[in-house]
Here is the input.
Amino acid sequence: MPDWLNSLLKLLQGSALGEAVRNAEYLYPVLEASHILGIALLVGPACTFDLRLLGFGRRVVSVTSAARNLLPVSHVGFVIAVITGIALLSAQATVVVGTGAAPWKLGLLILACLNVLVFHGGIYRRVHEWTDAAVTPVAARIGAGVSLTAWTGTVFAGRLLAYT
Ligand code: HEM
Here is the structure.
């Protein structure tokens, strides 16, 4: 592990936040429950939108309408997951980052975020051309596939943090 990362993790672990999360009764389980709530608000709507990109519900809702109603919820979920995740990490950051699942979780989380940027910066800019199309463009379906895989993988890696 690079020295700068190790020092950063030690700083987070030694902080007042780390102290509080380790010692305050019930704070860790409350943070974990909030983390799971954030994950549900993030992954639920994001994966539902991905399924729409793959053609599910195309007779019911357009791609733009699905995005307008689902993606803002997933953004709120992402913010909750990141804030509670960093708080959970502060309890024993150097231990969690040393687990076998941690690099997978970080890698899949980065892949999921990069995929969002590539999708919205690329094919989605021309969504007005295909919002009601029977079949969405290949780039949109690839984006949906990467998203479904990366978010599902992050969930599995997150759970495996305590077991590896
Ligand atoms: C900066 C972002 C994040 C950080 C620092 C982080 C950190 C953590 C930590 C330290 C734990 C506790 C491990 C334990 O005690 O078992 C955890 C649990 C978990 N994380 Fe994250 N997380 C982040 C984002 C996410 C996201 C975006 C997802 C899913 C899409 C996710 C999925 C999970 C899952 C499924 C668990 C296990 C929860 C449980 O069963 O109690 N995490 N995370």
About this structure: The chain has one domain: 3-160.
